[in-house]
Give the backbone structure.
Amino acid sequence: MAAAVPEGADAARAHFGRYARSLAERHPALATVAAAHPPTHRVWSRPEDVDPSSAAARQLALLDAFANGT
């Protein structure tokens, strides 16, 4: 698998999803395929994207408190 997708399966799935969206008008079936195979590990773009009950959310809260001096 590493030889076929050296960037990793999740990155390949994310790239395919973007590719499918860019070709949605010409090939609408690609969106269905891409939706059926989403990346397993989601990357957060905002703190609000993090699950509030997760350890990552706790770490973000601690970093925020540290940055605020509390």
